[in-house]
Amino acid sequence: xxxxxxxxxxxxxxxxPLDPKGRLTLQEGRGRGLCGSxxxxxxxxxxxxxxxxxxxxxxxxxxxxxxxxxPLHLYNDELTNISLPAPxxxxxxxxxxxxxxxxxxxxxxEWYYGWDDADRGRWGEIDPTDPTKFxxxxxxxxxxxxxxxxxxxxxxxxxxxxxxxxFDWGFWxxxxxxxxxxxxxxxxxxxxxxxxxIAYTNPSPYSSRHYAPRYTRAFYAPExxxxxxxxxxxxxxxxxxxxxxxxxxxWVRKLELVLLPVTYVYLTQIILHNNKGRITGVAGxxxxxxxxxxxxxHTRRAGDNAISVNYECFMKSNLPYxxxxxxxxxxxxxxxxxxxxxxxxxxxxxxxxxICGLAPWDDINEETMTPDQIRKKIETIDKNDHVIExxxxxxxSTATLQKDFDVTDQVKKYFKGGVxxxxxxxxxxxxxxxxxxxxxxxxxxxxxxxxxxxxxxFKETP
Length: 462
What we know:
alpha+beta; 8 helices; 8-stranded mixed sheet
């Protein structure tokens, strides 16, 4: 012990908590060792402190260079560094139905509307863009993994995939989700129950013919939203699970948490055969009915409250009746663009919280369930009809025609999002006379520049 005290007095700052007999006291202290390496000591880390001193002693007797070793206690009482994985973004990844249907879902083989500069100006890229801003909510469970939440922390948002904050030793449950990136935010977060954070949207000014009288309006579509929840993450004193970053001289805890989508992309298209210029477009906007109004970010389970989701649709004229896959990568048997049938296509892109009651990554186990079991599970979960609501406009006429197109089977099939297609022969459509209208008259609602809506919020049990 005398040698230990001599070593400590010579090479460490006097603030090292040793009593006159050379014993380490149970107090907080600081010191500095060889080559300027810094250390901290806490009474509750008694063994860690002893190991640190023994390390210094070993360095003294093997003094060959001043290359610093990564200090195992560096993160103690300092900012713990957490590395987060990137979310799964591309439509090919999000629309992975390989296990469900035993084939790779090639959505481009079903998509005729295309995606040009005008579409990118309206909706952005057809694939979701990378989120850059995230929220991390964490819950301390002490020394009990999967235990009750003892404390809740709501730190400010951060950018990128690197997060720093103070963590007590023990087990943590961690929720990560991105902040939507659009200028006009339609997604709101109900954090009144910290253990069940709910993302939801509110009614829009646009009418819907379904779900009245509870909702006479369609709801705004959410923005791209990803979430991941990991329980029993251990932040321990010996840095198990940490990797040393030699460049930045820090220990990094890689969080094995996958950010999965809680909003699902649908591409809708109404292919007009033999239109001959009669239908000129859509009055106002379109709605997709029967989708969930909200979702639970912890469980990723969609709520049970069915709504209509409002979105924009636009018409393209005189397109070759060729799917996008054959345009991007023509094959020997692909249709010839010069001789292919010409069609008009009304297309749109929207996001939803999915079908009511569905948590595809929890309730649907694609590794253990057979395709038939998955399809039956979807039938059991989804009790709603899914309809595309729109109003056609016509050339040389003030008449409009409301139409509802049933896409229930398609939504159930593509429960994680996909292409919804309606084929319509306009020759079979009853065209209203000029000045008249088909079905109930539904005027186009133009959203004013400034208006205040008093909208009740219906909170659901997650």
